[in-house]
Write a structure and sequence with these properties.
CATH class: Mainly Beta
Number of helices: 1
Distance between the termini: 35 Å
Order of helices and strands: EEEEEEEH
Protein name: SDF2 factor
CATH topology: Trefoil (Acidic Fibroblast Growth Factor, subunit A)
Pfam families: MIR
Structural class: mainly beta
Radius of gyration: 16 Å
Keywords: Repeat, Signal
């Protein structure tokens, strides 16, 4: 289902990450990546539609993925972590680092939001977050 803008993302939730410019999803499968030999990560699908190999699990601490917190993305079908290391392409995208899947968790597969639009949490989320038993 499409996530409504401003809806909190739960730790442990399966998501799809769609590139807004191309409409393709972050995708992985059991093929070797060209530079590192780890698992290939690519773009797949049309207009956000794809297949089960586009599903990633949000791995974070707490209940929700927080704006300032680090997060990992684990591929739902192959269990690799979305990672980036030092391998860089020469052509046609000189200097761009290879993004791939790694079997083990490490410092190379922590991600943090750096850009974007921050949406204030909905009233329902605020009530759930601060609810205390009497």
């Amino acid at each position: 289902a499409v996530c409504e803008r401003g809806t909190p993302v739960r730790c442990g939730q399966a998501i799809r990450l769609t590139h807004l410019g191309t409409g393709r999803n972050l995708h992985s499968h059991r093929f070797a990546s060209p530079l590192s030999g780890n698992q290939e990560v690519s773009a797949f699908g049309e207009a956000g539609e794809g297949d089960y190999l586009d599903d990633w699990t949000v791995v974070c601490s707490g209940t929700y993925w927080s704006r300032d917190g680090e997060v990992r993305f684990q591929h739902a079908s192959t269990d690799v972590f979305l990672s980036v290391t030092g391998e860089q392409y020469g052509r046609p995208i000189h200097g761009q680092k290879e993004v791939h899947g790694m079997a083990a968790s490490s410092q190379n597969n922590y991600w943090k939001v750096m850009e974007g639009i921050f949406m204030q949490p909905s009233e329902v989320f605020k009530a759930e977050q601060y609810h205390a038993e009497l």
